[in-house]
Amino acid sequence: MDDALTVHRLHFAFTVTYHYLFPQLTMGLALLILILKTMALRTGNEHYNRAARFWAKIFGINFALGVVTGIPMEFQFGTNWAAFSKAAGGVIGQTLAMEGVFSFFLESSFLGLLLFGEKRLGPRGHWFAALMVFIGSWLSGYLIIATDAWMQHPVGYTLGPKGEILLTDFWALLLNPWALWQYAHNMNGAVLTGCFVMASVGAFYLLSHKHVEYGRTFVRIAVIVGVFSSVLQLFPTGDAQGRMVALHQPVTLAAMEGLFETKEGAPLAILGQPDVEKRRLDNPLVIPRLLSFLTYQRWKAEVKGLSEVPQELWPDNVPLVYYSYHVMVGLGTIFIAILVIAAWKLRRGTLYTSRWTLWTLLLSLPFPYIANTAGWMTAELGRQPWLIYGLMRTRDGVSPQVAAGNAWFTMLGFMGLYTVLSILFLFLVYREIEHGPEPDGGMHIRQPAASVRAA
Amino acid sequence: METIWFCLIAIMIAMYVVLDGFDLGAGILHLLVAKTDAERRMVLRSIGPVWDGNEVWLLAAGGTLYFAFPALYASSFSGFYLPLMIVLWLLILRAISIEFRSHIEGPLWAPFWDAVFCGASILLAVFFGAALGNVVRGVPLDEHGYFFLALWTNFNIGPAPGILDWYTILVGVAALLTLALHGALWLAVKTEGELQLRARRLGSLLWWGVAALTVIVTAVTFRVQPQVTLNLTERAWGYVFPLIALAGLAGMRVFFARADDRKGFLASCAYIIGMLTSVVFGLYPLVLPATDVTRSLTVHNAKAADYGLRIGFIWWVIGMALCTGYFVFLYRHFAGKVKLDADHEGY
User: Fold this and answer.
1) pLDDT of residue A398
2) Which chain A residues are Cβ-neighbours of B62 within 8 angstroms?
3) Minimum-distance CB partner of A78 among B78, B304, B307
4) Nearest CA in chain B to A80
5) Residue A39 half-sphere exposure, CB side, CA atoms within 13 Å?
6) Cβ separation B315–A101 shorter than 8 A
């Protein structure tokens, strides 16, 4: 635990995991707010504008935390992973700098207008601000995914004389096939988080008989959007992402599935605990031949096991890769079940009075966060021991001059500060939910638009 | 190509300092200039819609530095590990103090965040100044181009310096006063009444401190970093940068006398840009001077591959054109004096 490499890895893992709790809701809500604004514009019903204003407030708090926890991520490439940055900065610096230049300016400028500019911009202008915030946050997502995708599957480069990595094809970097599927899968996951948060708040209002009209709107929109994205999450995006892994990172696939020995007609493990020492899966519950079929569309296809390569090249924490993958897939399956049932009841007109379904939606709030986190853990732990797959080992990327003690100091600092942020976030968001949207039909007393005014 | 990127990054950093500088300045003076809750809300509203976008210049400059000069990014970020992390914490505290202050009305909530806002802004200004001081003074790079600096050692500039020594602290204090003055002028432009008068009076006082420190820091810098003298003698046209700074400094005094805050603020922008470009001109081609001069990082040995720099230039120009558009629109949209609404909502 004391060697600097471990501390630097924990440092990044902690700060990035915490950070991504916020952007996933930002990106998901950006789409849902845009949908609400579009409905307001098309129906002329002020109800949807008030609903959008309510979510924009939560969006604002969430966005602020996404920004403040995101800035440390950009710095940490240099502070904690200097050797990696020096070697690869000419490539991934491109996408990271583009994120700053193209999406951060866009988001930050139009967020101010979305939150404070409604009155002066008018309905169309305000809808446009919502659109720009949506584009900004989704573009930001793409450039980050393109960065990670290059580390998972490096393309468009050559090696220089001193081992530095030189970019040779900008479009290959930007249109990396790995990035396209990973982006679709990831953004869809963010939409699921947005839908579950919105559905959960809606269910809370319906069950506690407060703001009932809004409760219905929230549950309806969230369930309709959610049922599509929960299915898309499995197929085609999850499926295609899995095949990318099978094609380019077969060792990772074996670790995800807990497959130690190469097999023809490999089974799909539903449950079981990987025992790395004995190289087997304990207490397995499997579906025969399914893994072969899912990976290669042939029931008898051969799937390579971990034993094919020396253990030194395995992900250094096989059980964690296995568990995070299984948690992600398991939750994704449960999401489909919940949302299909809710959508079916919505169609039959019984959803708003169905206490069991509403309670399920209410309590499902944390799970999309867990599923998204588990998905990222699968990707990043699965890439180990490589920092850039096949090119640079994680242990070679760390800052040579930053001692373990200094990294511990800053990690503890972040832990303390982020604890404070969590408390503030929960407190402020709870107050907004408790306060609720402005009552339908009444005068709107709260007018964020009028707050900054020219003389 | 690398010289172009050197200039572009310098421009981005100057943009950051000029724009976020007045946010920081407003924060530094927050407790001093605004006495009542209403006045403090005025201060926050004057920067409310723009500070976030202003901070993006720091991120964009950092990102651009990363891809154009990866070796510099890697070396300086890991070497300045501790102060950078502290800057990150301060940026987080400043951001949440601005964003969260208005969410709850209570006798303790707002004053607490006011104090956090003020404290974080003061420390940020000092640390940014000290960072500039460190780059000018140089750092002990090893043979692989890395270093690590403690926060302080014996407060001497050599041979084993810390982040804080007498020189960098001096630059830090100069930055604090400069940004405080910049913020005072911004507040004078954006507010009215008692608050405006107080900001103008404080600014006028701060000017003397800034003028005195300008002379001292400049004199000392010539001794700390010999490259500056060398560059000025070789390329005499470089005197234009310190002249811009001097003109800005003089301009501020003139406009204080005329109580013309808008022009005073522009003069302060010119002063800041003049000072920063003077430093940048004085260092070129060095980007991170080393104690052992042969190990110094320059634009030539820290740059990324030419192909990437050329491609980057294309999207950078497009991106900057777009973002100039947003900024013009945003600043026009929120132009004029800030007013408080009766309903106490938002800022």
Assistant:
1) 93
2) 74-75, 100
3) B78
4) B78
5) 18
6) yes
Average pLDDT over residues A325-336: 94
pLDDT computed for residue B303 by the predictor: 85
Say if A120 falls within a structural domain. yes
Q: Domain of A190?
A: 23-262+304-440
Q: Is residue A277 part of a domain?
A: no
Q: Do A98 and B315 touch (CB under 8 A)?
A: yes
B61 CA to chain A: closest CA distance, Å? 8
pLDDT tens column, B178-200:
999 999 999 999 888 888 999 99
Q: Considering only residues 218 to 277 of chain A, which have any Cβ-Cβ distance to chain B shorter than 8 Å? A: none
Mean pLDDT to the nearest integer, A272-294: 89
Flag if A90 and B343 touch (Cβ within 8 Å). no
Q: How far apart are CA B225 and CA B136, in angstroms?
A: 6
Rounded-to-integer distance, Cα A151 and Cα A92, Å: 9
Write out pLDDT tens, residues A74-119: 899 999 999 999 899 889 999 999 998 899 889 888 888 888 888 8
All residues at 6 or more sequence positions from B11 whose CB lies less than 8 Å from its CB, including other chains: none
Please report, in angstroms and rounded to a whole number, the separation of the first and last CA atoms in chain B: 44
Q: Over the stretch A378-417, which tens digit does the pLDDT of each residue have? A: 999 999 999 999 999 999 999 998 999 999 999 999 999 9
Q: How confident is the model at residue B333 (pLDDT cuts 50, 70, 90)?
A: confident
**What are phi and psi for residue A158, nearest 5 degrees?**
-130, 165
Exposure class string for B35-57: b at 16+ Cβ within 10 A, else e: eeeebbbbbbbbbbbbbbbbbbb
Within 321-350 of A, beta carbons closer than 8 Å to B belong to none
Contacts of A351 (CB under 8 A, 6+ apart): A219, A220, A223, A342, A345, A357, A358
Q: Token digits for A175? A: 């249109």
User: Is B326 close to A109, i.e. CB distance below 8 A?
Assistant: yes
Q: Are the beta carbons of A167 and B307 separated by less than 8 Å?
A: yes
Mean pLDDT estimate for chain A: 90
pTM of the model: 0.91
Contact A322, A258 (CB under 8 A): yes
CB A126 within 8 A of CB A104: no
- Cα–Cα distances in Å, from B253 out to B197, B226, B246, B275? 16, 31, 11, 17
The nearest CA of chain B is from the CA of A43 a distance in Å of 28
Q: Is residue A353 part of a domain?
A: yes
CB within 8 Å of A186: residues ≥ 6 apart? A141, A145, A375
Give the gyration radius of chain B's Cα atoms: 20
Q: Which chain A residue has the Cα nearest residue B75?
A: A82
DSSP secondary structure string, A76-118?
Answer: HHHHT-HHHHHHHHHHHHHHHHHIIIIIIHHHHHHHHHHHH-H
Per cent of chain A over pLDDT 70 is 96
Question: Alpha carbon of A271 to those of A274, A326, A330, B31: distances in Å?
Answer: 10, 8, 10, 60
Asked, for residue A1, whether it belongs to a domain, the answer is no
Give the pLDDT score at B136.
Answer: 87
> Which of the 8 DSSP states describes residue A387?
E
Q: Give residue B336's pLDDT.
A: 78
- The verdict on B1 touching A (C-beta cutoff 8 Å) is no
Measured distance CA(A303)–CA(A117) in Å, rounded: 57
What are the pLDDT digits (tens) for A45-75? 999 999 999 999 999 999 989 989 999 998 9
Q: How many domains does chain A have?
A: 1
